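Mods, move this if it's the wrong board.
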Amino acid sequence: MIAVSTSPPNLSMLRKFNVWYSVADGNFNDPSIWISNGKKKHNYPQAGDDVYINFNHKVTIDTNTYSVKNIYVYGYLIFSYSVNSALSVMGNIYAPGVVDMGGTTQATLKLYGFSNYINKYNFINPGISTIIEYSGLNDQDILDLPYVGLTVSGAGYKNVNYSLTVSGPFQLEGSVNFFNKYISNTLIFNGNISLNGSDAKFASFDNTVNATIEIRGNIESDLRHNKILFGTGILYWTGNNYCHIGGGTPYYNYNTMIIKSGKTFTIYPDPSPFVCYGSINGEDPTSTFNVSGGFYQATNIEPMATAGVYNYNYGGTSNLGYIFNGDYTLPHTNYHRLEIQGTGTKSLSGDTIIGEILNLNGDSLDLGNYAITVTSTANISGIIKKETSSTGLILFKGQLVGNAGSARFTVPGTLIEFQNGATWDIRNFSLIAVGGTTFKFTTRSQTLEVGGGTGLRIGADILISGPITITNQNQGFGILGVLNGDNILSKFLNTKFFDYQNLQAPMLTGILDSGSTDTTSCLFQYSLNGNQNITAGIYSNLTLSNGGSKKLLGDVSVLNTYNLNSPATLDTNGYSITNP
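Not the wrong board. Structure tokens:
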């Protein structure tokens, strides 16, 4: 018979954590170099154990991965193998002796404790790809050491108390705050920088004491939480750097940035723009700043104003922004994407081409006597204006989107050409152009979608050019100018509300179709407070209102509702209106 205990487990049955003392040189997992105060179930230190490397003893970390609680190095802790080896110290390391990472190319020392010490004068220069990682879920001080690779993760504050040089990659991840405490410190990053690393959104780089930073490598960043604070001190770009900014949220920089002699700093195309509240200049004429991604000026200081080369549309893919208050003349005339924000008037400096998207938010864009072409979408939440009449063409090859109830034109005597339709929200305004301006629709059939009510009145002529159809849908609008075509197949198709306030009959050339959509919401209204000519044809619904005589130019048939509102009068001119 076999006896089986039915008693519950007792804490005394669990493994006691041991304390190990070195007695000779050898590999970490060599049983012959250790003595322990505990049972001999294990032959060398295990996770949770404390380790003492005594004077003159050399303990070597081999290709395995080890973990201890606390380690005290009075002799030598050596990482000497050319392949991966790692030691995790879950408590603290106290090393007045030698820590040697110089004989390995791929070793990692992970520190989790809050009270670590390594004698920098006994720390042997690390190998090519060695990493020291601070991974505790608590505050930790970054030790005063020469780093090849430095990784900061976990949580809490990781405090920089000394000047710091990282000759290899620097990676910041987790829910940590990498905090530089003193302005006298200089932070030098020779290798590539990964900010917010694998966790991608919670880490913070805090240099609000405004110490000098020198970046010689490249930056790969997810900055969606805007926690990368390089301060307002000097930031040197001293390598041929590039900067990736992911996450979709802008990165805000307040430094005085200097690109060193003969070096190039490039902002790559990414979802997030680099927003410059400080300045960026070259050290001399051989410094170069390339923008192929998003770069927004938050001040009126043009990059590289004192020295160096500024390639503002490097590779033809840049997204350039001017997002400050005040008047400003745009210094360039060929943009890929252009973003304008703030108050004041931004003015063109010449005939301007925008290769893709224009975003105008809040500002006025003054065209002066120049033409502008927007190849893709134009998102307008501001004013496009000309102070005087001009022959300069405004060309929207993509869709025009008028946002936020504030988009409008004040452009006398100007031709505005649309090739892909327009959408407006008109809640906060009633007039989007002044007399003498022509809205010309060309190239393809398009739609006009006006929302926010039916109060929009365009103070311009509308010309439908070529055998295309312009469809009025959504809620509708009206015009004070002339509606016409230049081809017998030019068509204006009204499916909603359209208010016409001009003497000349609409679509004398081409086709007026306000009857093929037979619904109560399809209403054509002649409402000039004066005489008007009425285009013959079929109307779904027709209203004649305000003063003056409304004169028929041919027979009219109204399918649903017909209203003649006093004091307007009807001049049949020998024709008739039929309304079942």
